[in-house]
Design goal:
By secondary structure, this protein is an all-alpha fold. It contains eleven helices and no strands. Helix 1 packs antiparallel against helix 10, helix 6 packs antiparallel against helix 10 and helix 10 packs antiparallel against helix 11.
């Protein structure tokens, strides 16, 4: 039970960090493509992807992450495991990796705005991911597990940092998580650059 709660709390921490730092800015990006204000982003001497993911910060969400963090600490104490400095460092690293993966995956989906304009329905995949993220990977068959790692990367969001924290992470899980942390940013970069060419053509 304690391990399950640690996993759920980790999922909530990743989710709140994403919502507070990235989510609103990505929604603004989608709206700008639809209403034409996206042209302003093109005029700025900054990467479009950087602008689409940064800007305003909703501080209530990172603050909200303190609640699951406190619960997580109490559950570690109840579990009776010795958390090492390396475990904490890996936890922070893989939480950041989870935020990056979630942000990159959603950016990959939102890049379809250049083609279809209306992509609001794709946000449903975000809720699906967060629903799967707080479930232990052991409950999935091998085929589904790989699908939720490399197609819809829900498992890397919380399973890897939670397992690393309590010393139960295996090398394949950590390597897959780091691999996904590289794969999806690259894929989203390519998707946005491709969509950007389509948008430029449409504007001209």
């Amino acid at each position: 039970m304690h391990e399950m709660i640690i996993l759920i709390c980790t999922s909530q921490i990743v989710n709140q960090l994403y919502r507070g730092i990235i989510h609103w800015n990505q929604n603004r990006f989608i709206a700008s493509v639809g209403d034409g204000s996206f042209d302003r982003m093109l005029l700025r001497p900054l990467s479009v992807i950087f602008q689409a993911n940064t800007g305003s910060v909703d501080f209530t969400c990172p603050i909200s992450a303190l609640c699951p963090l406190i619960i997580l600490i109490t559950q570690i104490s109840a579990l009776g495991v010795d958390v090492t400095g390396a475990g904490i460092l890996l936890y922070v690293l893989f939480v950041i990796n989870g935020v990056v993966v979630l942000s990159a995956f959603m950016m990959l989906l939102y890049s379809f705005a250049f083609r279809f304009i209306k992509v609001d329905g794709m946000s449903n995949l975000y809720y699906l991911m967060m629903d799967i993220a707080d479930r232990p990977r052991e409950m999935f068959s091998r085929e589904f597990m790989y699908g939720f790692v490399f197609l819809i990367p829900a498992i890397p969001l919380a399973n890897a940092p939670a397992a690393a924290l309590i010393g139960k992470a295996d090398l394949p899980l950590l390597l897959m998580t780091l691999g996904v942390g590289l794969l999806f940013p690259i894929a989203s970069y390519i998707a946005v650059k491709t969509g950007l060419k389509r948008y430029t053509n449409a504007s001209s």
